[in-house]
Design brief:
SDR family oxidoreductase; alpha/beta; 257 residues; 10 helices; 52% helix; NAD(P)-bd_dom_sf
């Protein structure tokens, strides 16, 4: 676990709370120098002060250069954790194109922009670690929010592409795909989240534990909820049966709204 040891230079986006804060704390506990990024400057500063790190506030899409400068010119580990859960309007309802655009920009393009900025240095020195906080929705789906489900599939696909393209050149990639996690995003997910995610929700610290196990075992796919592997296999083996089952969940949700 070379890049998580003493002196590693780590950036965590969306780290003012939730999973991001848990990741920042865990890396700092392992002796890393951590840049804490969040749109909320106050929250970023609070976590950075707690862990002895550095706060870089702002949009996760555009902070690589500033974070690299803060760390003395090098980033060893980049955690693309910032994300949004938005409803873009169901078919037949008014289409919220701004919700779709925001979800695409934060959940996918922020990862693409970060990788674009990081890869030249990583490929030159033959090492680097990219951690993508995706979601089980990126492997399966989530009722009630098309933008979140679609863009998390995109985030997973991009992480997978990064890994298969650059693994042999020293770039390590991890895709974290939890189900419900007790964060502000879960609280904002409404009745769909209460039905599907909350019953098995875990703590952000559990996600950090799963990531570090994945790093130690050099695994691309990190599943804080191990049962997601079975769901993913079932989905691949019989897509029609899987969709029928999820449609029953959708119907149950509609009946209880």
């Amino acid at each position: 676990m070379m890049q998580a040891e003493q002196g590693a230079k780590v950036v965590v986006t969306g780290a003012g709370g939730g999973i991001g804060a848990a990741l920042a704390r865990r890396f700092a506990d392992r002796g890393a120098r951590v840049v804490v990024n969040d749109l909320d400057a106050g929250r970023a500063k609070a976590v950075a002060e707690e862990i002895g790190g550095l706060a870089v506030a702002g949009d996760a899409s555009s902070i690589v250069a500033e974070a690299r400068d803060a760390l003395g010119g090098t980033v060893d580990v980049y955690c693309a954790n910032a994300g949004v859960g938005r409803d873009g309007g169901e078919p037949g309802e008014p289409l919220d194109e701004r919700g779709w655009a925001l979800s695409w920009d934060v959940n996918v393009m922020a990862h693409v922009r970060a990788a674009h900025a990081l890869l030249p240095d990583w490929l030159e020195r033959g090492s680097g670690r990219f951690v993508s906080t995706v979601s089980a929705a990126g492997l399966l789906t989530m009722i009630g929010t098309a933008p979140y489900s679609v863009t998390k599939h995109g985030a997973y696909a991009f992480a997978e592409w990064l890994s298969l393209t650059y693994r042999h050149r020293g770039v390590k990639v991890h895709a974290i795909c939890p189900q419900g996690v007790r964060t502000d995003m879960l609280d904002a997910s409404g009745s769909a989240g209460d039905l599907v995610l909350r019953p098995t929700a875990i703590e952000p610290e559990d996600v950090a534990d799963a990531l570090f196990r994945g790093i130690e075992e050099d695994r691309f796919l990190v599943l804080p909820h191990p049962e997601v592997a079975e769901y993913y296999r079932a989905r691949a083996a019989d897509p029609d049966r899987w969709i029928s089952g999820m449609n029953r969940v959708q119907q149950h949700w509609e009946a209880t709204r």
